[in-house]
UniProtKB/TrEMBL annotation:
Gene3D superfamilies: P-loop containing nucleotide triphosphate hydrolases. This is AAA domain-containing protein. InterPro entries: P-loop_NTPase (IPR027417). It holds the Pfam family AAA_33. It comes from the Bacteria.
Length: 171
């Protein structure tokens, strides 16, 4: 029987450093790196103007990506998905991918303060001016309103980063 690959994914507020950590994890594990930003830019150039557009187009690409990722994992390839796992619903999608592939997963939880996220967003805006329309404090506040920290009942294999332990959802 062939060994299955491992799926790696990331949870953290906007600006927490998920993409940076994703590149590091992909390098460390010799994994295929899939970036949501790259897929969206390639498939829907100039069509994402606000958060609702992002949600719409993000949901459109997931069915295509899911089967591809399952096939890679079943073939023994490690896969790093630089896609957000910032809500229970998003994390559930990743777990369904793992269940279908019958593989293991690791979710990196980047628990970074809002102030640090905003500082990193500001730096990213300076380095990548084309992201200036979205990399704003207002967008950070909007997106952060949907953020749900992972809870023990989700049965995730979590690698933590930051300063907060996981909370039980009953607390």
């Amino acid at each position: 029987m062939r060994n299955k690959g491992t799926l790696f994914f990331f949870c953290g507020k906007m600006g927490a450093g998920k993409s940076t950590v994703a590149r590091q994890v992909a390098s460390k594990h010799g994994a295929v790196l899939l970036s949501e930003d790259e897929w969206l830019a390639a498939h829907y150039p100039s069509l994402i103007h606000d958060f609702n557009d992002y949600i719409t187009y993000s949901n459109l690409i997931k069915p295509f990506i899911k089967q591809h990722v399952v096939s890679l994992l079943q073939s023994g390839v490690n896969v790093v998905m630089d896609f957000p796992a910032n809500t229970v619903k998003q994390r559930s999608w990743f777990l369904r991918v793992c269940a279908e592939a019958e593989c293991q997963h690791e979710m990196y939880y980047l628990d970074i303060s809002d102030e640090q996220c905003l500082a990193q967003i500001g730096e990213r805006r300076r380095q990548q001016p084309e992201r200036g329309e979205f990399d704003t404090e207002a967008m950070f506040r909007l997106v952060s309103g949907y953020f749900e920290a992972p809870a023990l009942h989700e049965n995730l294999n979590i690698v933590t980063s930051g300063n907060s332990p996981l909370k039980d959802s009953n607390e």
